[in-house]
Design goal:
Length: 56
């Protein structure tokens, strides 16, 4: 399951720009998961998140 730890997320927006099908910025300016549709760009976003807030 794709998850964002909001306690860790710094709201950089990287995952949203890499994979807009799965991530969206929430009203609190943290990323949220909008779809569990896994694809290669999700894995890339996991590796690119500067604070390792995304888990699979
Ligand atoms: S890449 Fe990480 S820190 Fe940046 S918005 Fe996404 S979850 Fe938050």
């Amino acid at each position: 399951m794709i998850k964002v730890d909001k306690g860790k997320c710094i709201g950089c927006g990287l995952c949203v720009s890499m994979c807009p099908d799965v991530f969206e910025m929430d009203d609190d300016l943290k990323a949220k998961v909008i779809s569990q549709k896994n694809n290669p760009s999700v894995k890339e976003a996991v590796g690119s998140c500067p604070v390792e807030a995304i888990t699979l």
